[in-house]
Amino acid sequence: MADIKYVFVTGGVTSSLGKGIISASLAKLLQARGYSVTIQKLDPYINVDPGTLNPYEHGECYVTLDGAETDLDLGHYERFLNVPTSQANNVTTGRVYQTVINKERKGDYLGKTVQVIPHITDEIKRRIKLLGSGNKFDIVITEIGGTVGDIESLPYIESVRQLKWEVGSHNCLVIHLTLVPYLSASGELKTKPTQHSVKALLEAGIQPDVLVLRTEKNLTSGIKRKVALFCNVEENAVIESADVSTIYEVPIRMLEEKLDQTVMRKLQLPVEKDPPLKEWREFLSRLKNPKHSIRVGLVGKYVELPDAYKSIAESFVHSGAMNECEVNVEYIHSEDLNEENIHERLRGLRGILVAPGFGSRGIEGKIATAKYAREHNIPFLGICLGMQCAVVEFARNVLHLEGAHSTEINHKAKYPVIDLMEEQKSIMDKGGTMRLGGYKCLISKDSLTYKAYRKTEIVERHRHRYEFNNKYLDDFRRNGMVPVGINPESNLVEIVEIPEHKWFVGVQFHPEYSSTVINPHPLFVDFIKACIG
Fold first, then answer.
1. Are 22 and 3 in contact (CB under 8 A)?
2. Element (H or E) spanning 267, and its range?
3. CA atoms of 418 and 496, how far apart (whole Å)
4. Angstrom distances, CA of residue 500 to CA of 5, 375, 448, 484, 527
5. 9 CB contacts (<8 Å, ≥6 apart)?
6. β-pair partners for 92
7. Which of 1, 239, 286, 484 has its CA 20 to 30 A from that of 251?
8. Which amino acids are annotated catalytic?
9. Pairing status of strand 172-179 against strand 182-183
10. What pTM was computed for the model?
C-alpha cells in the first residue's frame, strides 16, 4: 500500500470563508477520481464536543452514526461524499487536553514535565494519523478551524509543520484559504490581507502549497501572478473561489480551476482525465431548473441563525431537487406564535416543519403550530422535540387531557405524555450523555413512512433525553395518532402518524443528518411531494 497522503486546509484574514466547503469539494473531486478520501475537523475551542454549545455559538450540533456530537462541517462532508463520518472525524482542543491530562494522571509520562510541545502536538498528530490508520483511506483531508494567527490555533499549526517534516512534502500538502476583498470606492481587489495571512503562516514555519482566494469579483491573471510572487507559490497553485449561487456548485468550480489536479501533482499522484461527475451535474440541473415552487415554514426558536438548522435547510435543497421543486423555506420564530396570530403567520404555507430543540422557550408556539397543521390538513413533519410537541397537542385537544405536557418543560405535568427516558434519570452531566447515534426502528407496512422508505427496518440518528410515554399508547392509537415506528430493543415509539390527515408525521430521530446530494432522505422527499400536492 502506498503512503497515506495528508492535505491540510487552513484559513486566513477572516473566519467563515468556507474551509469546510472547499475541503468537501476537493474530497468529492478526489473521490470521483477513484480515491478513498475522508475529512476531519480540528476545532480550537476547549469544549470537549459541540454538544453543550448553544446553537447561537456554533450553529447546529451534528450527530454521527456512532453517537459523536460534532461540528456542523461534518454534515457538509457527509452530504458531499455520501460516506458516514465518525467520532474520529472531529477533534477539539478540549478533547486533546483531556486525553493528555488523563495520561499524565495515570503516570504515562513517568513524571516528566507535560508541555504543549511535544505532548499536546504529539496527541494532535496521533489523532490526525488515527483516521488514516489501517489503510482505510488513500487521502486524509484535515480542516483546521479558526484563523491563522489565533493563539488557540498555534498547537495545530505546529503539529502540521512537524507532520509535514515527518512524512515528507510529497505526502503532505497545505491549502490556505484567504479573502481578497473588493473595495467598491476604488473599484479594486486587494491582495494585501492575503500576503499578511501567508506571512503569519510562514512565521509559524509553514509554506502553503496552494492558495484558494475567496472573492466577489473574478481575479485577473495579473492579481494571480502578484499573489504567487509575494506568497512563494506557483501561479497555477493560486485558485479562484468566486461567490456562487449554491454551495453545490463549488466542486464544479474547483474542477474548472484544476484544484484537484494541482493537489494530485504536488502529492505525486497520477493525473488522468477529469471525472464526469454525472450524478452531481444532474442534481445541479434539477436544482437550477425547477418545475414547481412552494413555501414551507420552518418553526423553531433559533431562526435568527439559519446555521442552527443547517442540515434541515440542506435536506430541503436535496429533496426539492429530487422533486424538481424550488423549496422556499420561511423561518418562523416559535416565540412569536400563539393561538391569536397563528392563522395570519402560517397562512399560504404548503407544508410545515417543527424543528428540534431543547427547553421551554417558544414551546407553546410549536404546540400551536402542530394544532394548526393538524386542523388545516397541511403536510406536517415534526422532528425530535417537533414530534413531542405534536404528541402534547394531540393529548390536550383530541384526548382532552388538560395539562398534558413533557416533563422536560413541566416536571409536575398532570399527564406526562412525554417523559424522561429511564436510563437518563440518574444522569446529571450534560455533555455526551443523551441517547445519541444510530438506533434501529421497525416500521408498520400500512403507513406513510413505509411508503417513503420502502422498507420495514431502518437505522436513524438520535439526540434526545425524553420520549413518548408508553402508558398513553392505547389512548393515542384509539383516537387516531398511530405509532408506526418502534425501536425493537427498548420498545420506544420512534414515529407517529395521523392516517386521516393528508401527510402528518412526527419522528423522534433526526432524518436531516442522513440526507445527502446523491441520496436525499426519503422522508423529506415524500414530505415535499405531499406539499406540492
1. no
2. none
3. 13
4. 56, 11, 11, 14, 16
5. 19, 22, 23, 26, 141, 142, 143, 144, 175, 176, 177
6. 43
7. 1
8. 384, 510, 512
9. unpaired
10. 0.92
Q: What is the DSSP string of 198-261?
A: HHHHHHTT---SEEEEEESSPPPHHHHHHHHHHHT--GGGEEEEE--SSGGGHHHHHHHTTHHH
Nearest to 477 by CA among 492, 462, 510, 499: 499
**What size, in residues, is the chain?**
533
Q: Is the peptide bond before 522 cis (omega within 30 degrees of 0)?
A: no
- Across the chain, how many H-helices and E-strands are there? 18, 23
Q: Cβ(163)–Cβ(140) under 8 Å?
A: no
Amino acid at the residue 277: L
Tell me the C-alpha distance between 325 and 53, whole Å.
34
